[in-house]
Amino acid sequence: MEGLSNLEYHVLLAMAEGPLYGYAIKDAVEEESSGALTPRAGSLYRVLARLMSTGLVGETDPPAAASQPHPGRSRKYYALTERGREVLAMEAQRLREAASLAERRLARGKR
Amino acid sequence: MSMLLGRLVRLFPPAFRHQFGNDLREQVRTDLRRARASGRWRELHCGVATAFDLIRSAFAERLHPTWTPAPRPSIPEPRRDLTTMLSHWTNDLRLAFRSLRRSPGFAAIAVVTLALAIGANVGIFAVIDSVLLNPLPYAEPHRLVDIAASAPGSDFPPEFGVSEEFVIHYGERSQLIESLAGYDTFTNTLRVDDRVERIRQAFVTQELWATLGVPPLHGRLPGTDDPEGTVVISHQLWTTWFGSDRSVLGSTVDLFGQSREIVAVMGPDFWFPGDGTLLWISYRPDPAAVTPGRFGTSLVARLAPGADEESLARELEALARELPERFGGSAAYAELMQRHRPVIVSQAQEVLGDIAGPLWLMLGAVALVLAIACANVSNLFLVRAEHRQLDLAVRRALGAGRGALLRTLLAEALVVAAAAGLMAVVVAWLSVPVFLQVAPSNVPRLDEVTIGLSTLGFAAALSFAAALVCGLFPAWRSSSARLTRLRESGGRGTTRGRAWSRDALVVLQTALALVLLIGSGLLVRSFQELRAVDPGYDTDNVFTFQMAPEGEHLRDARSYARFHLDFAARLAALPGVDSAGLVENVPLNEGLRLVPFRTEDMPAPGPDEVAPGPRLNYTWVGGDYFRTMGIELQAGRPLHASDPEADSGSVVVSRAAADALWPGESALGRRLQRSGSEAWYTVVGVVEDVMQYTFRGEPDPLVYFSLVELGEEPPALSSPGYVVRTTRAEEIAPEVRALVRQVAPEAPMYRTFTMAELASDSMIELSFTMLTLATVTGLALLLGAIGLFGVLSYVVAERTREIGVRMALGAQARRVRSMVVGQGARLVGVGVAIGLVVALLATRGLDALLFGVGSSDPVTYGATALAMVAIGVLASYLPARRASRVDPIESLRDA
Asked: Closest-CA residue in chain B for A74?
């Protein structure tokens, strides 16, 4: 598959520690991108849809302690699949390598 | 604003909405709520931005969908390797076994129904396998044919035996025959040491053994170079008469007053030609000493490789045209040979043809019963599957494939059918001996019938087929169960389709049962008609037996006659005995000789010619034969009972014989001559015709000679049949035996029957088929009635609520009953209509057995159809009664 977009990377990253429901993902993305990404509903769920369609994210049971918005309507929880976890790890690796390349170049440029 | 934005979510494609719609709306609501906290402008900004985002994303999603709903999670289809399949099956079978154990009633009814039907099929198959399918005990039996003669347009019977010149000429000239043999079977006295009995024997040409290609068990079979008159004995004779002693080879037996050497013993499986013949005497026809036209010899031939019956018929027809030129004979013979057509049938057809029809018929009948049983069990499974619909629908919703559901449902049918198959073998094993007991005793190989490997294989195959038939249809219907459909019907409803299939099964059952009922009805009517035939003699109160006294004094014809007439007189003196007589061939027990007779008006035959007159049967009588048998005197007088000498030169003829010899004239005082004899006889009486062989067809014309005329051929008549008229016919045998022991201690007494027994034996082919078919039909009716009862009971149970409402609204119990009965009657009516049409076509197979009634007899059809409807109404009545007792309150509460 083609590389992850920034939003996709952050959506995956948001779920790295455990399943989240939709709005919690949005909050995490905003926070972890230091406010750089403030996805609107339509964009966020299209990204989520694409991640699910490609098998990186799946719907899952809510965690035992999860609060419900109101009785009778259950929130959908999403989690990384095994593959999603691998892809996120690979993306992190790529970013790390890109960063270290940048650092090495910058260091050489100084000399 | 939140509502307005919520509307925009609808722009997304349905699948996307279905998955994320709620989440989208929740986020929109939360975003707006948070923005509102920062002021109205923030809220407006957020709202506009969100709206743009939703519209843009929705159109983007429609153009380039990111959401491709994953296929429904499904239980992975089993991998198609053997181990997985086996493990799935064993699992399902185990489950099926357990679930059946939980419904013992259902399981018992299904298993017993199938077991009875499969058992009947297996039993009949065991008989067919041994009698019909087993190859005949000869080398390459398919190449063996039996050849007889016919002469369309002549006064000869439609088919008759050939004569010696055919055996010689065919044997020498035919290119299409590898080898052939002539044979004549007859019953004659066999004497070994002190044992004397009349047994079935045959004169066979020496080529017989090469033609059949069967090696002997002991000894050496006679070939063409061996002298005439050597004897081959059967295994049965060897074990019962000679104690299985091998030294029998080379010893002699007394036949026709001559000693004959035994040269070979055949194996236990060998028989020829299928009429119980125990001994074969070889002879060699002499071309120089042949009298052409002495018909009556049977002919068996081995076809040359590649030859077929049609070309053989053409060849033999041409060969027969050459006979008059080579062997001479009268002008009548030459003319007959112009008309001659050979009749060629396979040896298997010749030997087994009579019984094959009834046996296949029975297999057809029990196959129908199996179809009815399968319909019943199929119906039970349908009902059972309906009760499990919810369970099945849930499994399907959870992703079980249709194949997996089919397997689960089929597994139950397989378990039921396997149990039924096992039980069926036991049923067959128990019932075949009973069946054989009532079967005609002249059927070859009946004693070889066993439940062998092929029969077990048949049972297994049939059970498997029954499982498929019973299980597949309900399984197929139910495996499509869907929750949605169930929800529509309230979780317990019956869809119209299911009701339709149940009704169809009842209609099918009714139709099949009616076909069997009509078949049985036709046979019962034939049997009644046959019983009503007047055979020309009484069958009640007549006892008959034979004995074979020995002694030098009996070799002389006069003293022989004197001895037997004296003995008849002593029999007549027994207490309770009205009269006694004797005859060479007791009707229905032994055959007669058929030869040409001529009157004084007919020309004398040449020296080597056969007499020109009609061919008539003849026999010898003595004592009070006619009165004892109840044969009515039509004109003149009977032969003298006590003074045979007074009857020298006299004969009595039957009405048909008188009509054949002197059509339209009185026979009394006229004279006749038997072919091969010089003597003339005067007719002193005419008696009523008698049925000699069977009650079917026309009586056989018959000439009765007096015992005193035996002088001509005494050795042929060493044991006449006695007839004794007494009201104690059933129990007089021991007294007669005691009397025989007094008069001739060495003489065996055998063939002891009452005429009533002989009469019922003569109808055994019909009565046996009738009995079997009637039993089978009873089973079919029972199963059919159970099927209808079951379906209507189910319908009533289903409609309890509706019936309750009707009754609450004031419907009379009577109306409810007639509603249910009406539903049953409609189904039966359709079944009867179909059954009548099928029966019209199917009962043509019965034609050969029917007597005095056509295969489309309207009375039988009408009566059985009515009976079928009556059974249907009866089977409907019980559920109807239950329906009419429905308590409206209860039914509504339950519902």
From this structure: B22
